[in-house]
Model the fold of this input.
Amino acid sequence: MPKLTKRIVDALEPDPSAERTVWDTELKGFGVRMMPSGVASYIVKYRTAENRQRKMTVGRVGTLTPEEARQLARERLTDVSKGGDPSAERKQLRNTATLTDVCDNYLAEAKARLKPNSYLTNSSNVNVHILPLLGNRSIASITRADVTKMQADIIAGKTAKMRKGRGGNTTGGPSAAHRATVMLGAILEYARSHGAITENVAFGVRKPKTNKQKRYLNNEEIGALGKALDEAHVESAVAVAAVRFLLLSGCRRMEVLSLPVKWIDMPNGCIRFGDTKTGAQIRPIGQKAFDVLDEVDSRNGWVFPAEVGDGHFVGLPRVMARLCKAAKLEDVTIHVLRHTFASVAAGMGYSELTIAGLLGHSVPGVTARYAHVADSALVSAANAVSERIACLLRGQ
Done:
């Protein structure tokens, strides 16, 4: 029998009198088992260090592709080669694991494959919202009703708290509950793939509706913010410059705050991001945004350095809140600055694809085309938009 492929697996027919197993020729010990009922699963066969033969299910046919199942089987067989017994470990996990245990394992594996900011976001979601409410429950005992109650508790603010040290506060609400439910679903799916549970109870649970951010600053509000920035003498010069740069560039908050000096390419009108939400990227930046950097004493390799220590600046949400209060602006977050940049660009007649290129969105035919050079048309657009916003900040 050749290597297991989707075509071969789809062609399998059940034997009404007995189960049927077909083994893969590429990975020894990996196969697909068809039960008389017609239910088929990918399996792994191996021998333990005590020479005991084991079989364990990797996943159902239909929920995993042959390649996905082969990769999981390879991981299980790698554990065996190191003296492990995945089947026995699965049974133990099923009997004793709490959600905290599974979260610890999930985050440990996720740290190697996620970007640092994504990992910090996920771990914060787990530690702040999920574990305080369900962490001591056994993984097998969690029900859909528990997931629904978790959502209600987060919306009610039961997990909201003050953060110690740098950064803002943790709040509740529908958006936080939505993100926590998605995160819990990923963790339970991880547990299901490892055999700790047979069903992911987070799937199918209705998530709270979230209001997508539609707020942006109109021309008068941009002028009011500009006046507040000019008069913000008690605020950190780095923070004020960061707010200006965010509005004039359309960049995301952490793209700016964690920006290394070495990524700045002012002569070519761009930032050469080593990493963004959508991967490595060249982003066109207007000259008026770059002019803001003259106001910042960059050091320790950061464009916007922390006032104390060797890291980059944090705590911008609090500064933004004070600036908005001074400018008498309501319902304005840092992300509204990015929406405002896009709104100004749209008002100037630029197309959605051009605006997507300016914002660094992952849009086929836009960001891919500018992966190696800063396109002159986009640089020209970035210059024009930043010039327009700079005028509005001055009240013109």
